[in-house]
Amino acid sequence: MAYLDNIAVFVRVVELGNLSAAGRDMRLSPAVASNRIKELEKHLGVRLFNRTTRQLMPTEHGTVFYTGAKQVLDAITEAEAAVAALSGQPRGTIRVTAPLGLGRRLIASGIPDFHDRYPDIEVRLRLSDHNVDIMKEGIDVAFRLGIIEDSSLRMRGLMECERVLVAAPKYLEARGEPAEPQELIGKKHDCLMLRYAGAREYVWTLQTPNGPQKFEVHGPYDTDDGDVLTGWALSGRGIINKPRFEVEPFIRDRRLKVILPRTPPTPVQFAAVYPHKKLQDPKVRLLLDFMAERCQRLIKDILAGK
């Protein structure tokens, strides 16, 4: 098993590009992770990484070995999943990622309950509003809001979420409430955007009498954290485009107001995506079923004011 453990560390270092990150992901200290790599290099008689100040890059030998090593680990995972399916006792680790706001509100609070139900399954949750590369970073399941274009992934739609444009009364008193979508641009409203490397949605698409129409809105600043956007809107700094369930409590207590209700943003898809082979893994199916039911119920409760 020690040799397989060394291979597993090597694969995670290649995928994450950093020894410390790989160590944290596998719950190993940087020293232990480094020793695993050294043992593997000694066994193979070659150097597997070129070391720079910021990351480790695989050598030619390392690149070749990674391809085979990844196939070996995937085969073992599939074999373990098959045994778990037969025995009815799923076990192992699931790596999950979700956007910050959605992850905090819906996913994170459900992980302990899932573990209580399935104590032999460990879940490692990573929250980020960045576009995480699922294949490269070894993610098993990603919960996402928005456009999903990667054809190498399977998708399970969980629900379609209404979106709204909202702003604080303070902002609307100072700048005026837009009566039609064109005023967002014509009156130079401060439209606050979620932007990050790899983001695809830099316009607001609104539902108009002539069908969906894109508006190239602008604002004085943007962020890669959805909750920061909400905070800015609450402090009267501009207009934001959000899934209604994320801002419903603030709408209900009148800290935010829905604007342009007759031409709302197009709905956003809430979905789980995963590599093709992962649905064969019973523990992944269990997590998807558990979170699908839970998230649908929580969103309905939030919108109903419960």
Automatic annotation (TrEMBL):
SUPFAM superfamilies: Periplasmic binding protein-like II (SSF53850), Winged helix' DNA-binding domain (SSF46785). Keywords: DNA-binding, Transcription, Transcription regulation. PROSITE patterns: HTH_LYSR (PS50931). It comes from the Bacteria. Residues 1-59 form the HTH lysR-type domain. InterPro entries: LysR-type_TF_proteobact-type, LysR_HTH_N, LysR_subst-bd, WH-like_DNA-bd_sf, WH_DNA-bd_sf. Belongs to the LysR transcriptional regulatory family. PANTHER family: HTH-TYPE TRANSCRIPTIONAL REGULATOR, HTH-TYPE TRANSCRIPTIONAL REGULATOR SINR-RELATED. This is LysR family transcriptional regulator. It comes from Mesorhizobium montanum.
